Amino acid sequence: MQTVAERAFTSRPTLQRVERGDSGVGMGIYAAVVNALGLLDRLAAVTSPREDEVGLALAEEDLPQRAGEWAGRKRERNEG
C-alpha cells in the first residue's frame, strides 16, 4: 500500500480514502492511483459514458415514449 501511495504521489490515508470510494478525493488523485497501478490505458474505457450501463439505463428510463410525454415531463419539472 505504501508503494502505491508513493508512486501516486499521495499519502497512505488518502489512498485508503480512494479504496473506500470517498467522493471527497479529487479525480486527479484517482487518476494518479490508476497510473501507479499501471492501469492508465484503461481509464478512458472505465470513464466512458458508453460503458456506464447504469447511467444508460437511467437515461433510457427518462426518455419519453411519445413526443407529448416529453412536454408533460418538462412542465412537471418546472412546476415542481
Any descriptors?
80 residues; mainly alpha; elongated
Which secondary structure elements does this structure contain, and how are they paired or packed?
Layout (H helix, E strand, L loop, with lengths): L1 H6 L4 H9 L6 H10 L6 H5 L5 H10 L4 H13 L1
Task: Please explain how this structure is put together.
The protein has helices at 2-7, 12-20, 27-36, 43-47, 53-62, 67-79. The protein has 80 residues and is mainly α. The mean pLDDT is 85. Helices cover 66% and strands 0% of the residues.
Judging from the principal axes of the Cα atoms, what is the shape? elongated
Taking the sheet with the most strands, its summary is: none
Percentage of residues in DSSP E strands: under 5%
| SS summary, helix count | 6
Q: What structural class do the secondary elements suggest?
A: mainly alpha
Q: Could you give the distance between the termini?
A: 48 Å
The quaternary organization reads as single chain
Q: Mean of residue pLDDT?
A: 85
Q: Radius of gyration from the CA trace? A: 19 Å
SSE sequence, one letter per element: HHHHHH
Poorly predicted regions? none
Helix content: 55-70%
Number of strands: 0
